[in-house]
Structure formats: structure tokens, C-alpha cells
Write a structure and sequence with these properties.
homodimer; alpha/beta; 8-stranded parallel beta barrel; two-stranded antiparallel ribbon; 13 strands; FMN (chains A, B); LLM class flavin-dependent oxidoreductase (chains A, B); oxidoreductase (chains A, B); monooxygenase activity (chains A, B)
């Protein structure tokens, strides 16, 4: 593909009122619709009208009475919400997060196949391991298993899932009323997996779905995470604070993918971008300061504490970030914690300044500016080897997402950087991803 | 409620082309749409136009290359399919089967809350334990745990789920933009459950859903099943071969519910009814014999073997059902096996005759007749203490379900036995079920 034809991929990271932690308090935010499917449907339809590749839902399997005191919580679980969105949209990809830590591969592989059928080939799975004790405590454990063990389980979880998706060959279904043959039983395989974590016989109780398997997405950027991504991921959502970091990450991952014998073009890297957009500089500044005013630093501190697995709730706001455990000992969100520490040190921030910097995107890159400025930045990253596209995380959905669609996307289209029409129907087609070979074929 | 006002409840047991095992081969069956959501959507919309209370999806978490050779398999998993159906319908209840044997309560409670939000209060959960080795083998086991142990786990699974649904009091969400308070943290509770099978801290990461909890449905009719139903169920789907059996079951369950300190009116009993309908007797006979001609007895024998957990594939078709293990030793589908043995003995059937009798509804009551005859039968059971309504299982969707809607339902309405308009919006309202008390309220 020459650079002229290369288009960027744009994913909308759906987050009710926006990614800024105070977005639900913003005066224009339609917070009364937080519990209404219709609100999410309209956002996703807008993203589809703008020809975005996909939408994405994050997930986490715990909460606490303290954290919901100030933090808005949406009521939808990803696979159920995406199934509902699947039947009211036609083209846009639907990516959901499901953890490998507290689920069984047979159940998860099956739900994604079901979603892939419901959406006619638009399912994607963001594969995570759960990183906090509070999640472990909802699943029979006291503490979260250590980072390496979780990734070991995740790898086997993926191996089993892929075998299950492959357990029906593409042409196994015959559906012949006359002969009464529904499937060619030679093309439906037991997988007989026996591993350290799972023993699964198969076959899956769903035949091969339109995309054969969902697009596999990954976001971990720790060492274990990068190795996992290089082995399995077809798209990577990543948090990068600077162009230089993003470019280094991009090169490292693509190299590692190559070393693993895979085609680096078949792994799309999408850094997160959290814009605050205004038609003028004044407008931008106004929105930004309004959001800052609405922050609750008690809540911000608790969020940060949860994220990095260290209690900071009694730390002083006007002093630098206190000393944290060395990265090697962190069992939770390793790479994100590392990024946060680096950010605080590089810019010499007080804890309060750091919290403000994190409020808009929890460590993802925040851009504040006019549509022109945002488009320039995206173009620069895209054309200079730091990104195949972007995970768009509007700090407030209204007006940022509207402005992104109304002003930034047309600008990108004008520059020839983004599609003006969908050229395919499936998420794989939007991302330019091939259907992987079936390991059981022609046995 | 006096008898004049009492209306029956009608649930459509959705099964792609129909409940007869040869229905997918029937000439008029739109089998080419087996994989299309639109087909299911249209069926459910029809049921909704007819003012039926609910639709229901069964489930099983395994298949085999042998059983899909002749048996059609649908591609949808219940919670994902129901979520999709939720947003294209408005009134009809949506009941899905999820097993307690190979899932975690936090995940399941959450998905049903999500479905309840997506449907604005129309979610129902048919609670099962998985009964076969082939399912166990997809979840790290060699053999299915014994019947009593599965029910013990199911009971604790329910206790945890109910605590999780109760973990948010009804008025916990405050959503005040001004003060920045999202929830009253005193009304969001850790559940701190510690039992034999589960340790779960809570709270659920979804606030209290429109129905507070899904309608709890149960279908097991073994001793363990009946006890479970008397404790938890709000609706019971049951297989009963005769009016006398249905009436005895009805009385026994309602009594046991009462003994458990619950109101027997709050547990609705819906026997399964598998009709073949024709406008004339000749039409009925023609449909019935056409379906019989399309049966594959190899397949039927395998299905029966799976159902009762005993390999009958080499048994002789023209002889009586061979001796089976005594009921006490059956670890799989206990009560259904008992029903099948009784049916064969009572009517002195050869194995082949038994297979024909089971083909239309796997042990549920089959009625073959004109709309008038079907309505008479339903009325008799309903008015004489054998049923609060029925689980309608058309042997072939097309034409049986169409005929049921076009001719049987209007007949029932004419007789004042079935609603002509929905009077409520939620599944609880359709079934006349109260919202249960929250165990954490006013603590």
C-alpha cells in the first residue's frame, strides 16, 4: 500500500458523557440519559454516519460505594450493549472488552460468535486481564493473581478461543433439507484442549461466524502485554503521552510482530487521543476551565489510587506525586502506572496538576485546540510512523464528539487521510485485516 | 382475583424453525434464514402483536459433530440475542436460559441487569443446572457433578445473585450535577458473601434495574428442582403429559410455595404445549404425517440418548424401550427421563413409536388439532387448576405459530381468557408479579 492510499482508522471509545471525569457534571451534558439505550444508539449512529471504523467499550468487573459517590456509572455490560447496538447499525465495527481472568473461554468465544452473527461480521474483542484486588474479590479470591500468571492464563484463554472458533470449518454447514444433512460432521472438530488452566473438548455450539473470529484487540503495553499483542492482537489501543513515545512503541511492536512471523500490516496501532475541541481558542479555553472547575479532587485521588494500586487519598495535593512502589512490584496496571510516574516527573507536576492532566483521559494523550490543530496533530502522528489510526476519546461527548465529527473528520477527509465512504461491510474489512487461516482446515 | 378477571399467560418458546426435530426440513420452513437475526425479530414481533407475555430461549453449552450432522443448530447465545431483541420490541418479556453450573454469579447477575435496562424492565432468567458430561467437558471437568451438588451450587448462585441485585437500593442513584453526587454511598452495599461455592464482595457494578431483578424462571421438576422452584421461582415452565399429572404438579408446587412462606399467586405455572394446528382435520393430519416422514431415527435415537444419559443407539426400534437405570441413579435430566419412561409404559409404545411421540416436543404435551380443539384444551387446563398459562412450543413455526396467533389467540380472547391489550410495560406486570423486597433496604 503506498502512502497516498493509506487511510487512518478511527475508533470511537464510547464513554457515556465523555472521558473527562467531570463530564457528567458539564452543564450541556445530557446526563439524564445515562441509563437510556437510545442515547448510546444515537452516538454510535453518528459515528457510523461519519464513517468511523468502530466503537469500543471498556470494562471493569467491580465498583465500590466510595467510587460511585462522585463517579457516574453506566448500567450496560459490553456484550449485551453491543448486541443491542448491532441490530440498529449496519456498518460500524463493535468492539467490547471482556476479561480473561474471571470467565471461561467456551462462554466468551461463543458470545463473540453470537455478536458476530448479530452484526453480520462486525465484532471485535478487546482482551484484558483484570488488574485489581477489588475485581478478584467478586470472583472467589482475596487478591488479584500476579501479572505474569494472569498473562499466562490469558494466552491459554486465547489459544482455546481460537481453537473453538476454528472448530467449525467454513463450509461445514450444508443445510440440505432434502437429504436432512445439516452439517458435514467431518468438518466439525473436537478440540480436546488440555492445558494448565483449561480443559475443553469442543466443538463450539455455534458454526463459523461471518468474520470466522472477532477482530482481536489488545491494550496492555507492559512487557507481557506487548508480547501478548505481538502474538495475538490485530489492533492495539495504546496510551502514549508524546509523539516520540508513540513512535518508539509503534516500531517496537511492529518489529516484534515481524519476529513472531506475522505481517506487521496486519496489526493496527491506535493511540488514544482525548480532544477538547472549540471552533475558536477562546471557546476551547472556556470548556477546559469549566471542566476543571467541576473536578472533585477527593474523587480524582481515589481514581488514581485504584488505577495504580497504591492508596494516595491522604497525599498532599500541592506537593509532587509521592514515591510509588518500583514498577517490577506492581501487579495491577503496570504500564499505565509507569506512564503516569514519567509524566509527573517529566513535567515536574504537583499531585494536583497531575490529577488535572489525568482527568481528561486517565493517561491518554489530551489535545486541546481548534479542529485545524487536532487534524494537524493526527496527520503528523499518522504520516510519521507513530500510528495507523486513533482511538478517539472525547473529553466531553457533547460538544467535543459533535465537533470532531462536524469539523475534524471532514478536514481529515479533505486531506485524503480518512475514508469518505465505507468500502466494506465487516470490521475486518474496515481495518484491512485478513481472515486468519483455520488450523483444522483440510485435516 | 376472581376467575372472571383471571387471564392466562402465554409464552412463546422460540426455536428457530419449530420444536419438531424435523421442522427445519419441512418444505415451507424458511430454513435459509436460520442464521439471520431478522427472522427471529419478525417472530418475536408477531408474538408481541398478539400480546403474548414473553418469549423464551432454551440453552445448552455443548454440541458434537454427530448431533449436528442431522440436527439444525442456531447461532445465537441467549443473553446476546435477547439484548438485540430488546431494542426492536417494546412490550414483550424476554426470558433467557443461563446455567448456574459453569458461570460466575457476578457476571450473570450483571448481564441480566444490563438486559433489564436495555429492555426497560422485560428481562427474565430461566435458571438451570447443566446435566450432561458433554457440557462438563467444555468446562474443565470429565463428568457432570451429581444432581444434588448442582442444585446446591444453584441455590448459592441465586442467593449471591439476589444479594447483588439488592446491593443498590432503589433510590441510591442521585445524579446531581450541581453537587457532583452520583450516588448515595450509604445505599450501595458490599454483600460480603462467603459460602461453599462462592466468595463475592459486591456491590454489583450496575445500579438497580427497572424490575430490580429479572423474573426468575425455573423448569426442573425433580425433587431438587421442585424445592428450588418453591424457594426462588416466579414462573415455572414444566413438561406434563396429561391433565391429571399437570394438576397434581400444580397443586404440589403451589402447596410447597405456601409452606415456604411465599404467596402461591406469585408463582406462575406454565406447562409446555406443542401444537400442530390445521384449519381442518385433514390439514392437521397432513402436516403431522409430513413431519413424521422427515424424521431421521438415527438422529432421534441419539437425541434421546443424550437426553436420558444412556446410549440407546443400538437398541431395536420395533421393541419396547430397553430397561434404563433406576431414577435414583440418573444424574442428568432426572424428571424428564422419568416422564419419558412413564409415557412409554403407560401407552405401551415401541421405541419407534416413542421417538415419534417425543419428536414434536421432547416430552412436552403435544396437541394435534383445529384451533377450536387447541383452545378447548388450554381453557380446560387453565380453568381446572392445572395451569396459570402455557409455554407455547409450535412444532413448526410456519404454519403452526401463525395459525396459533391468527386463530387460537383470538378464540381465547373471545372467551375472555387472554388479554387483548397489554396493561403494563414490564415482564413482572404482564405476569402479575410484585417487585420483591430489597434485603438491604433501610439498614
Amino acid at each position: 500500500m503506498n502512502n497516498h492510499d493509506r487511510k487512518m482508522h478511527l475508533n470511537l471509545f464510547l464513554a457515556s458523557m465523555g472521558h473527562h471525569e467531570a463530564s457528567w457534571r458539564y452543564p450541556d451534558a445530557p446526563t439524564e440519559h445515562l441509563f437510556n439505550f437510545t442515547y448510546y444508539k444515537e452516538l454510535v449512529k453518528k459515528a457510523e454516519q461519519a464513517k468511523m471504523d468502530s466503537i469500543f467499550l471498556a470494562d471493569r468487573t467491580s465498583t465500590s460505594s466510595k467510587s460511585v459517590k462522585y463517579g457516574a456509572l453506566t448500567p450496560f455490560e459490553p456484550t449485551t450493549l453491543l448486541s443491542a447496538l448491532a441490530v440498529v447499525t449496519e456498518k460500524i465495527g463493535l468492539i467490547g472488552t471482556v476479561s480473561t481472568s474471571f470467565n471461561e473461554p467456551y462462554n466468551v468465544a461463543r458470545r463473540f460468535s453470537s455478536l458476530d452473527f448479530l452484526s453480520n461480521g462486525r465484532a471485535g474483542w478487546n482482551i484484558i486481564t483484570s488488574g485489581t484486588d477489588s475485581e478478584a474479590q467478586n470472583f472467589n479470591l482475596d487478591k488479584i493473581p500476579d501479572h505474569a500468571l494472569r498473562y499466562k492464563r490469558a494466552k491459554e484463554f486465547l489459544d482455546v478461543s481460537i481453537k473453538l472458533w476454528d472448530s467449525w470449518e467454513d463450509d461445514a454447514v450444508i443445510l440440505n433439507k432434502e437429504s436432512g444433512i445439516f452439517a458435514d460432521s467431518r468438518k466439525v472438530h473436537e478440540i480436546n484442549h488440555k492445558g494448565e488452566f483449561f480443559k475443553v473438548r469442543g466443538p463450539l455450539n455455534i458454526s463459523s461466524s461471518p468474520q470466522k473470529r472477532p477482530v482481536l484487540v489488545q491494550a496492555g503495553t507492559s512487557e507481557n502485554g506487548k508480547e501478548f499483542a505481538a502474538t495475538y492482537a490485530e489492533a492495539i489501543f495504546t496510551a502514549q503521552q508524546t509523539f516520540a513515545d508513540a513512535k518508539a512503541f509503534y516500531n517496537k511492536v511492529k518489529e516484534r510482530v515481524k519476529k513472531n512471523g506475522r505481517n506487521p500490516d496486519q496489526v493496527k496501532i491506535l493511540p488514544g487521543i482525548c480532544p477538547i475541541i472549540g471552533e475558536t481558542k477562546e471557546e476551547v479555553i472556556e470548556t477546559e476551565s469549566k471542566l476543571q472547575e467541576l473536578m472533585n479532587f477527593d474523587h480524582s485521588l481515589m481514581q488514581l489510587s485504584n488505577r495504580i494500586g497504591t492508596d494516595l487519598t491522604s497525599a498532599k495535593l500541592d506537593e509532587p506525586l509521592p514515591e510509588l512502589p518500583v514498577i517490577e512490584e506492581i501487579q495491577g496496571h503496570k504500564s499505565r502506572t509507569e506512564l503516569i510516574i514519567e509524566l509527573a516527573q517529566r513535567e515536574n507536576l504537583t499531585l494536583k496538576q497531575l490529577l488535572i492532566r489525568l482527568a481528561g483521559g486517565r493517561g491518554h494523550y489530551t489535545i486541546v485546540g481548534t479542529p485545524q490543530k487536532i487534524a494537524d496533530e493526527l496527520e503528523y502522528w499518522f504520516l510519521n510512523g507513530a500510528a495507523d489510526g486513533f482511538n478517539i476519546m472525547p473529553q466531553i461527548m457533547n460538544p467535543d464528539f459533535d465537533l470532531f465529527i462536524r469539523l475534524v473528520i471532514p478536514e481529515l477527509q479533505k486531506r485524503g487521510l480518512f475514508r469518505t465512504e465505507y468500502t466494506g461491510n465487516t470490521l475486518r474489512e474496515h481495518y484491512g485485516l485478513a481472515i486468519p487461516d483455520n488450523q483444522f482446515m483440510s485435516i
